[in-house]
Amino acid sequence: MQIALEEARAAAARGEVPVGAVVTDAAGLVLSRAGNEVEARRDPSAHAEMLALRAAAATTGEKLLRDATLWVTLEPCAMCAQAIAFFRVKRLVFGAYDPKGGGVEHGPRIYTQPTCHHAPEVIGGVRERDAAALLRQFFAGLR
Fold this sequence. Notes:
The protein is α/β, with parallel strands linked by helices. It is built from 5 helices and 5 strands; from the N terminus they run αββααβαββα.
């Protein structure tokens, strides 16, 4: 999660919403890391999770990440939660909960839907205070 927080800080420094993500393999080796790039790419799908998942698949040469863990600083939105299911990620670990835009523990709760073909193990609240503080600081600076 430390690396994901570093990616989130780097995203904030670029003017992006501070969300960072890291994909590790079964041995804990980093396959990819990313921060949000929505503004830079002018792409609303350029969330940290999406970028990290795509890069991890490119690194492994596989379309599925069955033994991988995705570490992300914020509860994934519905789009990212569904992508995590499509990539068949084994485990999702996230920091801050997102009652407004989350898609895992809040909102559509993607993994509880009967149409969801794969649900990862989910661990929420890891380094929650640190992740939430980054988001609060970022948005306070915009007000």
